[in-house]
Specification:
This protein has two domains: 81 residues, no CATH class; 47 residues, no CATH class. 31% of the residues lie in helices and 21% in strands. A three-stranded antiparallel beta sheet has the order 1-2-3, with helices on one face. Strands 4-5 form a two-stranded antiparallel ribbon. It has a two-stranded antiparallel sheet with strand order 6-7. Strand 4 and strand 5 form a beta hairpin.
Length: 141
């Protein structure tokens, strides 16, 4: 069964291997995971971003979760809790490894373990266009 969950201390080796493999395909798997950053620092940064603490000016609070199947990390998602002006008008998108995803964001804002996610009306214009183009067949993914 697929589960979305935060990264754990024991995920480092597998996650870094996935990050390196995806980098070879020009895809950033571990957002903010740079050479020289220790795993403890990375997990602390993700926790801070989830809580909206110590954010660089260009970032908004977000939750980073991994997709886990039977204890194996197979993917990731980063969910912004809100949008700033840039994300609302120009940035922010819905994609999966270079292809646009289907599935509309939830209408009301949702509470997930104390984390409030942005309501759909706050999606960027580009994300709304992506969702509209995807059509009903792809929303069943």
């Amino acid at each position: 069964m697929l589960r979305l969950r935060p990264l754990r201390p024991g995920d480092e080796t597998a996650f870094r291997a996935g990050h390196d493999a995806m980098a070879a395909e020009d895809f950033t798997f571990g957002l903010g995971l740079e050479p020289g950053v220790t795993w403890t620092e990375y997990l602390r940064t993700l926790a801070d971003h989830r809580a909206g603490l110590n954010l660089p000016d260009h970032l908004v609070p977000s939750t980073f979760l991994v997709a886990d199947v039977d204890g194996q990390v197979i993917g990731r998602v980063s969910i912004r809790h809100e949008l700033n002006e840039y994300l609302r008008t120009r940035g922010g998108h819905v994609s999966a490894r270079g292809r646009e995803l289907a599935g509309a964001p939830p209408e009301p804002s949702h509470d997930h373990g104390g984390t409030r996610f942005a309501p759909a009306r706050e999606c960027s214009r580009s994300a709304r266009r992506t969702l509209l183009r995807s059509g009903p067949a792809s929303r069943s993914m």
